[in-house]
Amino acid sequence: MEKAEIEGLWTHIHWLSVLEEQGTYTAAATRLGVSKSAVSQRISDLEKATGTRLVTRTTRSVRLTDAGQSLTREVRSAYAHIARSFSSVRDSAGEIRGLVRLTAPVAFARQQLVPHLSAFLQLYPQVRIQLDVSDALSSLAAEGYDLAVRHGFQVPETHVAWKLCDTTSVLVATREYLQRHGEPREPGDLTAHNCLFYPRGSDQPAWTFERNAERLTVPIAGSFATNNSEALRDSALNHLGIALLPDFSAHAALANGTLVQVLKGWTLKGVFADEIYLIRPYSPHVPKSVSTLVGYLKSRLSAGFRFVG
C-alpha cells in the first residue's frame, strides 16, 4: 500500500479506536459527532484496505478482532500524543475549553460532585465534561480518562494526585429506630442491634473503634449489607437499623435531622478511607481545562463534610 493511501486512512483508524472504546456504533458516532452510518462506512473501508475483518458484532455491542486490537494498540499512543500536543497549543491561546473525561464513585458523584460540576460548567461554557459514574477501578490511561475521583487507601504511584478533602466514617440511625431499640452507649452495645454494613470479603463483619489510646473491634450482624453507601443510608432512613456511612453520604440527612449520629465520641477505622483524591495519569502537559477543574473542586470541597450538631 502506498504511503499516500495509508495517510488517507488515519482518520479511519482513529474512528476504529473510538469504536473500541465506546463499544457500540451509536456511542462511537455520538462521541465523534457524526452519524452511525458514517462510522460504519469508515470501518468497512478500513477492512477493505487491510484485507481482514477488524470488528465482530454481538446483539448488544461490538468488539474488535485480534487484528483490530493490534491495529488500535499500535496507534493509540500516537493519537494520545497528538491530542496532548493540540491541547498544549490551544491552551497557549488562554481560553479554557475542551472535553474533560472524569470518572467517580457512584455515591460521591451523585451526592457531592454533580452540583459542583454544574456550577463549574456555568463559569466555563467552553468546557465539556463527560462523567462516568462507576465504583469500578478503571485504568485511566487505557480508557482515556483525564481525571478520576478516588476514595481509597492508596494512590497509584504512576499517577499524579491532588488531595480533594478529608472524610470520616459515621454511625447513624433514625430517632424512631433508637426509640424502639435503645441507643448504644458503648461499641459493644452494637451486638444487640441490627447493623447495616458494607461487606468486605467473606470474613465476619466487624467495626473497629478508637478513642484516645483505646481500640476496640466489635463483631456486628444485621439483616442488610450492600456495597453502595446510598442504599445503606436509605435503609437507615427507613428505620431498619444502625448504618456505617462515609460522612459525605450522611451529611445531608444529619443536617436536616432525619438521621442522628450514634457513638459520637468514638472514631471508626478501616472501613472507608480517610481521604478523597483526584488523580490522573502522569503526562508532561495537563490541559488547562483539567487543571482549572481540579482547582475549582479543591476550593469547593476541601473543607470536607463534617457535621457539627
From TrEMBL:
Gene Ontology BP, a term: DNA-templated transcription
Key words, A-Z: DNA-binding, Transcription, Transcription regulation
GO molecular function, one term: DNA-binding transcription factor activity
HTH lysR-type domain segment(s): 10-65
CDD domains: PBP2_CrgA_like
Presence of the UniProt keyword DNA-binding in the record: yes
Superkingdom classification of source: Bacteria
Protein family according to the UniProt entry: Belongs to the LysR transcriptional regulatory family.
Name the UniProt record assigns to this protein: LysR family transcriptional regulator
